[in-house]
Amino acid sequence: MRISRPGRLAVAVSLLALVAAACGGATPEGDAGGGGGEDGEAADVRIGLALDVGGLGDKSFNDAGNAGLQQAIEEGLVSEENTDLLEANQTGSNRDENIVNLADQGYDLIIGVGFAFSEGIAEIAPDYPDQSFAIVDGFANAVNEELTNVADLTFKEHEGSYLVGIAAGMQTETQTVGFLGGQEGTGLIEKFQAGYEAGVQSVCPDCEILVEYIGDSTQAFVDPTRGEALSASMYDDGADIIYHAAGQSGLGLFAAAADADQWAIGVDSDQYEVLADNPEQQEHILTSMLKRVDTAVFDAIQQVVDGAFESGFQVFGLAEEGVDYADSNPELSDEIRAEMDAAKEAIIAGEITVPEEPQG
To answer: Using one digit for the tens of pLDDT, what is the confidence trace for 87-133?
Structure first.
């Protein structure tokens, strides 16, 4: 079976708002996945990973998802020959086709890396009741509440973004900072913006926060040229540090930061480490908001290997070590680190509630 359906953005917009509020999940009967291997041997489970637009080499979201799969291979949960990885085309029009391809081949767990897989998997998964599906940033269980074999792996991006907002608010000398978002209008990237703005304002209430979004489709995540242009414009308007949540498009921010000799903040992976092969840009990345897509993917694989797959919404925040900040750049001062660490503890303790929607 091969299918291809256009995305229904209007439905996604309304349903993404449900993701943050949903959590938990039941373990359905008859889920796929055997027990773990003995004596370090990999289990016989088969894992298929479907990447979104940008694919391998985006140095961000997709690479983080693949890192979780590679960790499972390295730790012996699965054998490399029992895995497959499919990349979406440039427009993402073959997302559903890739999922069905992996399901037809009998993979025990099929993982879609990106919220755009949600509606397709919500329709596809019931046709494969003996196999399990997981979606990074997913909302399939909101589309179809009767699903029993789909896990939506969601994050409290606003919590991690609050921490890097503190870094921006303390690092800025112009009291003007920027935010570069990828796709506007889904509610997902707006969570990054909301947390970042709140973090900035907690330490710099008089700071001006410039905001730019690249577009209103998933193509906004694969346009580093526009990312660079919008970032350069914000630097020209006085920003001296910009945080991005724009996938591969964020690589344009780093180019603009190097040209303007200003600061940037990465996302998803530790992008200071990721750009080690580009020291001219690397030195401008003060920190990154870590969104542990790799952890979520690895945990989903572990569940299937253990025969304990959990359907429904699974939420990863600071308390679950699902988000955090990177401290690999030695230019991130001890004073800033201390403030970020104090905020992290306060958020986990419930003393700080981070908004999920921009307040402006």
So the answer is: 999 899 999 999 999 999 999 999 999 999 999 999 999 999 999 99
Instruction: Quote the CATH superfamily of domain 9-156+293-316.
Output: Response regulator (3.40.50.2300)
Helices (H), the chain: 9-19, 61-74, 95-104, 118-124, 140-143, 157-171, 188-203, 224-236, 251-260, 271-274, 279-282, 293-305, 334-348
Count of CB atoms situated within 10 Å of the CB of 43 = 24
Helix (H, G, I), strand (E, B) or coil at 242: strand
Residue 113 has a CB neighbour count (10 Å cut-off) of 32
Bridge partner residues of 85 (DSSP): 49
Distance CA 175, CA 291 (A): 26
Class of domain 157-291+324-348: alpha beta
Quick: pLDDT tens for 297-328.
999 999 999 999 999 999 999 999 999 999 99
How far is the C-alpha of 313 from the C-alpha of 167, rounded, in Å? Answer: 30
Count of alpha carbons within 13 angstroms of residue 128, beta-carbon side: 24
pTM comes to: 0.82
